[in-house]
Amino acid sequence: MRKVFSSLALGIAIGSFAIPGIAQTFPVKPVRFILNVSVGVLSDIVMRAGAIELQKQTGQPWVIENRQGGNFVPGANACKASAPDGYTVCLVNEQAMSLNPQIIPKLSYDPDKDFKPVTNLYVQVSGVAVAANLPVNSIQDLQRLFGGKSGAINFATLGPGTTQDILRQWMNNNWKTDFLGVPYKGMNLILNAIVAGESNLTQTSLGSAGPYLSSGKVRLLTVNSAKRLSKLPDIPTFTEAGLGEFIDVQGRFWWGLVVPAGVPDAIVQRVNSEFALMFREPRFAELIDAQFLDTVLGTPEQFAAFLKTDRDRKSTRLNSSHV
């Protein structure tokens, strides 16, 4: 009996030292990097550039796997179903972690139980963009022209209950109009649809819309930022444009990283450290700045606290708002 106990104790002791050792050598094989967005959109472009830096840092490929569409549910489900060995890292966002639990009955994943937070990454500066041929130059023009009219225009979204759809509903309820929500699987598809005349307006990140804005194919009416942007001084903020109440409901659109539940804390910390190093790389930092992204990296514990606060905030605001 004493020998059995001694063997068991030895096994536990070895195991207690094994996890930090694994973290020190991690990774020893390619890492699967699940992105919950389609190829070519802003976060895909940024994370693909990041994957190149991560391979340099870790000596192993970071293999991108796009799981787009469906209110970002497919990406979360793929992450949840992955082995908890640290070799699957997953991009998540406000929609997947904070909004879906409020709007999707019997959600197929639990944001608290199925994942371990790694870090917040960045916040997107977004804006309301319209087709260049739409005869409006401001949010006030949009409200005056279409407020109170039913079936006025098509509002492109990433699906029911997504950020764009919440803004559409807010406008419908507050302006007494009836903008029709038209769902697409990716922001690149939305912007192409607006250029083609299939849809008339949307809410989009400025990074995604950049080429369309610079070419004049899409017009920006307002930006969701605390103050006017130095690169776009003539574009008013949401508050200046009269969308301040909507900001209280939505907040700003963030992106972060999680891994499947059960991944050892030491590996979570190692992944966190690798991304912190990547964001300090000068060329990657320049890309982040050029795409109108605000870096908000932190510790796994800080991200866990943020997720809880953000979800509670969304629940309170959505239940008390006019959406």
Written description of the protein model:
The protein has 323 residues and is an alpha/beta fold. 47% of the residues lie in helices and 21% in strands. The strands form 3 sheets. A 6-stranded mixed sheet has the order 2-1-3-10-4-11, with helices on both faces. A 3-stranded antiparallel sheet has the order 8-5-9. Strands 6-7 form a two-stranded parallel sheet. The longest helix is centred in the first third of the chain and has 24 residues, at 2-25.
Q: How is this structure best summarized?
A:
The chain has 323 residues and is α/β, with parallel strands linked by helices. The chain is 47% helix and 21% strand.
Please identify the structural class as seen in this structure: alpha/beta
Unreliable stretches (pLDDT < 50, length at least 5) are 1-19
> What is the residue-averaged pLDDT?
88
Largest sheet properties: 6 strands, mixed
Tally of DSSP β-strands: 11
Keywords:
alpha/beta; 21% strand
Note the topology.
Blueprint: H1 2-25, E1 31-35, H2 42-58, E2 62-66, H3 73-80, E3 88-93, H4 94-103, E4 115-124, E5 126-131, H5 139-146, E6 150-157, H6 163-175, E7 178-183, H7 187-196, E8 201-205, H8 206-214, E9 218-223, H9 244-250, E10 253-260, H10 265-280, H11 282-290, E11 293-295, H12 300-320
Parallel strand pairs: 1-2, 1-3, 6-7
Antiparallel strand pairs: 3-10, 4-10, 4-11, 5-8, 5-9
